[in-house]
Amino acid sequence: MNQYIIKRNNIKIRGNGTQTLLFAPGFGCDQSVWHSVAKAFEEDYKIILFDYVGSGNSDLQAYDLNRYGTLNGYAQDVLDVCSALDLKDTILIGHSVGSMIGMLASLKHPEYFSDLIMLGPSPCYLNDPPHYYGGFEKEQLTGLIDMMEKNYIGWTTLFAGTLMNNTDRPEIKKELEDRFCSTDPIIARQFAEATFFTDNRKDLPNVTVPSLILQCSDDIIAPSVVGEYLHQHLPSSTLIKMEATGHCPHMSHPEETVQLIDRYLNKALHMERQTDRGDLM
């Protein structure tokens, strides 16, 4: 194991299984957001949690403005984690932009991954009429970025509320606010720009790893049409529309999230075993 990467990305390894689940956080979050979901799989899987450089308890000294100016820098973090732990055929579970980061990593090294599970993914947040609706006009996203610079605390409250879109779970909104506040504002702003102004639509047809898209209800950040677009353009993809509302089902609705992931994993592993038996015949 590469001890430098383990320390740099604050890698934690848990669980009892042989099949690996690698959890990739979304924008502004660290590995702790996966607590409820990851814990449910510890009995049957090996669980790997990590922080991107610049988030959580990662090594802030390793943050580089050039490397993390695009999502490719974060995708390299994922690849570094896979390489450091010598992973193969890993199931990556990503939230929001973590899904796209995992997808980009799979394009560079598909051998590291057997499946991608995406919670609230979006390949492009900007509207591009008449054929694509991402949910936001450029002026809206520019205003959001400007607010981060002028009033970071106010931005954390506004953005956490937008993510949750769930007024009966104020404690989850507070959790998100605290995580955003614990991130260096300069790093958070650069990550926001890399996230919200990226366009990965052209990459979708090149993905070779099977994927599950979990689309939330009433998700302001990644509307239903975005999930449908991904399903249409991602080869070997499965789309499931959740009852969970908002953009963070792993935090607000962990039971449904676990149930749907477990169902997909059981089906995927069953098909894998069938294929293995077929190869022996």
Automatic annotation (TrEMBL):
Source organism per UniProt: Halalkalibacter alkaliphilus
Domain AB hydrolase-1: 21-259
InterPro entries per the UniProt record, alphabetical: AB_hydrolase_1, AB_hydrolase_fold
GO MF: hydrolase activity
Organism superkingdom: Bacteria
Keyword Glycoprotein: no
Family: Belongs to the AB hydrolase superfamily.
UniProt cross-references to Pfam families, sorted A to Z: Abhydrolase_6
Keywords attached to this entry: Hydrolase
Protein name: Alpha/beta hydrolase
